[in-house]
Model the fold of this input.
Amino acid sequence: MSLKRAAAITGIAEMAPRASAEGLSTMSIWADVSRGAILDAGLEPSDIDGLLVAPPIVDMVAMWPSHLGEYLDIHPRYANIVDLGGASAAGMIWRAASAIQSGLCRAVLCVSGEASDVSTFYAPRAKRPTQQLPLREFEAPYGPMGANSGYAQIAMRHMHEFGTTGRQLAKVAVDQRTNAGANPDALYRDPLTIDDVLSSPLIVDPLHLYEIVRPCTGGAAFVVVSADLAGSSAQTPAWLLGAGEATRGVMLAQVDSITTSPVAQSAPLAFEMAGVTPAEIDLVSVYDCYTITVVVTLEDAGFCEKGRGGPFVEEHDLTFRGDLPLNTHGGQLSFGQPGLAGGMSHVTEAVRQLQGRAGERQVPDCELAFVNGNGGIMSEQSSLVLGV
Amino acid sequence: MSDQPRKPLPRPSPLSQPFWDGLGAGELRLQRCDSCDTYVFYPRPYCPHCLSEALTWKAVSGRGRVYTYTVIRRAMHPAFQPDVPYVFAIVELEEGPRVETNVVGCAPEDVRVEMPVKAVYDMTTAGIALLKFEPA
Done:
């Protein structure tokens, strides 16, 4: 069954990332962006009959959707948590569209974000793997550095198999920083060169500090509505044209090939449903927790041949003025990663661009966007084609 | 008791005890499926390939090659900070399965992808041995 044009995103809201929580709570952030998204969509609180929530990474409690519904004083008929790690936001859109198409609801509020900073994110207590997980028994004793070491291992193997270079990976961070210069909300906006990236401290070989995302505080929300509500929306609807999802194990030792991600399955599903090809895409908005993530995603989504991601990002201008505008908000590498709202930033930016509301960094004639959400160590992938 | 942070050590379950017992005895043992002849790692109650519950522990060669690795220069868990820089790797065993591990016995800059390695059994003060590898 196709979800093409079954639903559209109309309203979005985003809190600018900040380096520390500054007295904010997760709930206060969620309330702020929820209000903003409902207002932006031109809806009343009573119109919201669906609620999807991505859990905060540093603060896991049960029944988050009910706690948020209570805070907002809304009464959804469809309420769920979506935990696909960084892929949660993209995964929410087709889940919302699916619920809308089945008649369960008409307007689904999707919310993410958290009050976090580097110290809470890296606190050993917060990051202790659940005692029963095989990860705790067969990986933790060897001193991994969380996601950092996993993505570094992917990058190392990618370099071995395909000859990908540090300069090629650094180019992703550099072009995205140029984009961040045109985004007042981004955490890091000063221009960056390839040499700056390569001379920043090596943290987990071959990845340098400026190739690694920064945990921070922030949040985002959007509203997914039915076709009839989209028709009367104040904003240009950003339609869901295609969606695909694929997952694999989280422990890299359990994965057949770590240089190919499940994007190789999820993206073709999304393109097929939408009836478009990568060559037709005006804006690429893909998860970038590390530079290597972007390179692997572009390959597996079919923007270039497998293994040619390095030369591909070198040959193309990935800025908002370029021939392949990519992560025009700066990507999470420059924008910041406010928990799972980091993944949502790729959705909000795509909607902004499709609606023509991206200001200085607006991509001309932006009609088709490819969005990719990525979770874990490239273990969860949710791919979308959005369009106007 | 010391206030120093302690490294997270394995807590063997009845299912995984033979694996850790093997390492303690200086031997790498893996589950092998009697039904489809596949090695299974990490330990599981049944073969995920054919669903057979007939799994037998077998001693294996301990030989393999580095599938990938990274050098960790800032530890996330404070107990590992004194060890930096150290190599966190995935080794592909000759018998097929891959394991997360450390490569020891050489400088981090001498490690290469596809480098041949052999198992070493690193006995911790807690009396449980970890599976590590050194250049073969």
